[in-house]
Design a protein that fits this description.
Elements (H helix, E strand, L loop, with lengths): L2 H4 L4 H15 L3 H10 L11 H14 L5 H14 L3 H13 L9 H11 L2 H16 L5 H9 L4 H9 L10 H11 L5 H15 L3 H9 L7 H13 L5
Helix pairs in contact: 2-4, 2-5, 4-6, 5-6, 6-8, 7-8, 8-10, 9-10, 9-11, 10-12, 11-12, 12-13, 12-14
Length: 241
């Protein structure tokens, strides 16, 4: 792209143009059909493998790194909202995660917009664990925020509340997690039940006794799916219930 052409566009537009151009060069229509079938046609695919999306995204992150938080926010919103293919969303998610200095409380509104626009696990889970989690880990009012999310009418926001602490390990607020579980354990939704089990499984590696106690407790009516997921970690450690 020449300097004259570049001068007509903002960084976000240049990133978007370059991203789509590079992805199209390595697109595989047959692979796209399989990807769309697997993801239940939630959005069109170009047919680019995850490793190749990562390579393209890494290259463009170096070329279009943000100079400040406003640039970070603007590029994310512009590219995500104008994306035609799911691989573009994957690349934007990598962009969000790469610039860790901007993963802050100030930007959770942008991440929430991405959740509400995408509404599928491949984007939502990455945002919950890699963006919302780090942004909120030192937030003094995380309890009220996650409790607000767990009551949200959108299921993907409720799932996010359950998964935000997924990578916290010893910093997990288990009392908060159990409270969130108590508010969602009776839901029939597969993705909520799966998230409950996933959160418990991850925490079992840090505190197996706490997870065993919750599973055995008559207070918590875990679905069979949630129980199966939560037991996977315990079984790997040789703990049976």
């Amino acid at each position: 792209m020449t300097a004259n052409v570049e001068s007509k566009y903002q960084k976000s537009e240049l990133f978007s143009i370059s991203l789509l151009t590079e992805l199209r060069e390595i697109a595989d229509p047959e692979k796209a059909k399989m990807q769309e079938a697997y993801m239940k046609n939630k959005m069109s695919f170009l047919g680019v493998a995850a490793a190749d999306v990562k390579q393209v995204s890494t290259k463009l992150c170096k070329s279009y790194s943000p100079n400040n938080n406003n640039e970070y926010r603007h590029l994310i919103c512009y590219v995500f909202n104008n994306a035609q293919y799911r691989e573009e969303w994957y690349a934007v998610l990598r962009y969000c995660i790469r610039f860790k200095k901007y993963i802050t409380l100030e930007n959770i509104d942008v991440y929430m917009d991405m959740i509400l626009k995408s509404q599928w696990w491949d984007i939502v889970d990455g945002i919950a664990t890699n963006l919302m989690g780090p942004a909120l880990i030192d937030h003094t009012d995380i309890e009220s925020l996650l409790t607000e999310w767990v009551k949200h009418p959108n299921m993907w926001v409720r799932r996010t509340s359950l998964l935000t602490q997924l990578k916290y390990k010893s910093r997990t607020d288990f009392n908060l997690l159990t409270h969130l579980i108590s508010l969602t354990m009776d839901e029939k939704e597969f993705f909520i039940r799966k998230a409950i089990g996933w959160a418990l499984r991850q925490y079992s590696y840090t505190n197996p006794d706490a997870v065993v106690g919750l599973i055995r407790s008559s207070t918590y009516r875990l679905s069979n799916l949630s129980k199966r997921e939560s037991l996977k970690g315990l079984k790997r450690m040789g703990i049976t219930i």
